[in-house]
Amino acid sequence: MAQIDAGVAGAMVRESKAAAIESAETGKNVHLKLYRGDASGGEWKEYDVPLDTGMVVLDAVHRVQANQQPDLACRWNCKAGKCGSCSAEINGVPRLMCMTRVSDFKEGETIQVAPLNAFPIIKDLVTDVSWNFKQNKRIQPFTPREMTPEEKVRGEFNMQQRDVDRSQEFRKCIECFLCQDVCHVLRTHKLHDEFQGPRFMIRIAGLEMHPVDAADRLERTWREGGIGLCNITKCCTEVCPEHITITDNAIIPLKERLVSEKDPVAILWRKLTGRKGSSAPLPMAK
Ligand code: SF4
Ligand code: SF4
Ligand code: FES
User: Fold this and answer.
1) Range(s) within the chain of domains with CATH label 1.10.1060.10
2) What is the per-residue pLDDT across 69-81, written as a single tens digit (0 to 9) for each?
3) How far is the CA of 49 from the centre of ligand 2 (A)?
4) 217 C-alpha vs ligand 2 centroid, how far in Å?
5) Cβ–Cβ contacts within 10 Å for residue 281, how many?
6) Nearest ligand (C-alpha, residue 225)
7) Cystine design at 180: which of 53, 197, 213, 271 (Cβ 3.0–4.6 Å)?
8) How much distance in Å is there from the Cα of 132 to the middle of ligand 2?
């Protein structure tokens, strides 16, 4: 029989005890109110499930699925806040189910879970977010400039670290679409044909700030992306689980660049006065 090193065995016991402590039963219940329905209509249904310590809302929903309603639909993949699949509205706030602890709510408080409001429902807590993937395809992808002769010799582009850092935060996006869901332009006014939404404003900003990208997406961001419809309420930034500063670091710099480079009145003013524009230097690499 294989021998297990005493230190390893001790660590294993400690780990399993820790796991047992993490998911210990509390003898209490969580009261859930879940939206059940599809495109033709639906209703709220209430469930009680046993409360474990460390439980997240996704665990509670899974418990309903496992023990009471096997046909309950919910989308998830990683249970680690990284795949962006388990987005829902929890007590009216767009959040990830797997990153929302039951202990965030008052003891005895009903936890209400609804599907995202800005997109069509498929079933129960699952919505059709495919509109977002279509928006992604409308954006001109990364288009690198020509390498300089020196860069060609080395086989890589010259980039300043500060230029790389500037757009780094936008690449943390997990495509949960919580920002799209909370944005009133999409959620309330349903202007999906006119505004691509904050998630795609950060994608555009990330490309526009890229030190090597040579494309100009500004005019399309105005005409087709609908950036003018954003009135900087910052709700998107507040719900982003990756803490991306969507409004201040992406949308506002894009708007400023649009005004300084494309606005006909600003261009005429600069021609007449010979001034280069009044804005402070913009945080853009190009
Ligand atoms: S700041 Fe703009 S993009 Fe963000 S939620 Fe408000 S209107 Fe929508
Ligand atoms: S920007 Fe934030 S909220 Fe919006 S899709 Fe990406 S991770 Fe989700
Ligand atoms: S299951 Fe992946 S983010 Fe929640």
Assistant:
1) 130-273
2) 999 999 999 999 9
3) 30
4) 21
5) 5
6) 1
7) 197
8) 12
pLDDT the model gives residue 80: 97
SS3 46: strand
d(CA 229, CA 223): 11
Give CA 195 to chain center in angstroms.
Answer: 16
* pLDDT tens digit sequence for 201-214: 999 999 999 999 99
pTM of the predicted model, to two decimals?
A: 0.86
Q: How far apart are CA 186 and CA 239, in angstroms?
A: 15
CATH 3.10.20.30, the chain: domain bounds:
25-127
* Residue 283 buriedness (CB in 10 A; 0-12 / 13-18 / 19+): middle
Range 130-273: architecture per CATH: Orthogonal Bundle (1.10)
User: How distant, in Å, are the alpha carbons of 36, 49, 62, 125 from that of 71?
Assistant: 10, 16, 11, 11
CATH architecture of 25-127: Roll (3.10)
Cα separation, 121 vs 98, in Å, equals 20
- Which residues are registered as beta bridge partners of 46? 33
Mutate to test the pocket of ligand 3, among 56, 61, 76 (most ligand atoms within 8 A of CB): 76
Residue 125 near residue 88, CB atoms below 8 Å:
yes
**Residues 230, 125: Cα–Cα separation, whole Å:** 28
* Ligand whose nearest atom lies closest to the CA of 175: 2
